[in-house]
Amino acid sequence: MRYLGIDYGAKRTGLAVCDAGETIASPYDVLHGQKELAKEIGRIIASENIEAVVLGLPLNMDDSEGPQARKARAFGQQLESKIHVPVHFQDERLSSFGAEKKLEETGLTRGKKRERLDALAAAEILQAFLEQKAASRDP
């Protein structure tokens, strides 16, 4: 099954996709702004044969949901009604931190890192989802 991972943000939204074997998540793209976001994601879902979406849920460190998590849930509900594929939520705590750590090793300039950060964070979210899914299948 192919999944689209989403790191939802007010200014930028990072996207990642996984292989059909559900083993590797790869950064895909960064979409800028909110206008037509669901429509653009729908186009990507169709062109990449995506069967489900994994949307990052920014929980607080105490597992509670703050304003950003509520915005992500609302976007997920809106998206699901428009794209007609299941939307799963994945705890995204520390996904940006993990993405930043990986980018530190690349030697890219600050601007180039910023361009890639959101897509890499989406890949971190999607990879965590895939790993949890695989672990739940294994005895």
Largest sheet, if any? 5 strands, mixed
CATH architecture assignment name: 2-Layer Sandwich
Strand order of the largest sheet: 3-2-1-4-5
* Residues in helix, %: 40-55%
Within CATH, the superfamily carries the name YqgF/RNase H-like domain
| Helix-strand sequence | EEEHEHEHH
Strand coverage percent: 15-25%
Q: Could you tell me the radius of gyration in angstroms? A: 14 Å
Oligomer: single chain
* Uncertain regions spanning at least 5 consecutive residues: none
Average residue pLDDT: 88
How many helical elements?
A: 4
In CATH, what is the class?
Alpha Beta
List the helices and strands and how they pair.
Blueprint (H helix, E strand, L loop, with lengths): L2 E5 L4 E7 L6 E8 L4 H11 L4 E6 L9 H17 L3 E5 L3 H10 L5 H28 L2
Parallel strand pairs: 1-4, 4-5
Antiparallel strand pairs: 1-2, 2-3
Q: What would you note in describing this structure?
A:
- By secondary structure, the protein is α/β, with parallel strands linked by helices.
- It has a single domain (3-137), classed as Nucleotidyltransferase, domain 5 (2-Layer Sandwich).
- The protein contains four helices and five strands.
- Strands 3-2-1-4-5 form a five-stranded mixed beta sheet, with helices on both faces.
- α1 (37-47) packs across α2 (67-83) and α3 (95-104) crosses α4.
- The longest helix has 28 residues, at 110-137.
- The protein is globular.
- The relative contact order is 0.23.
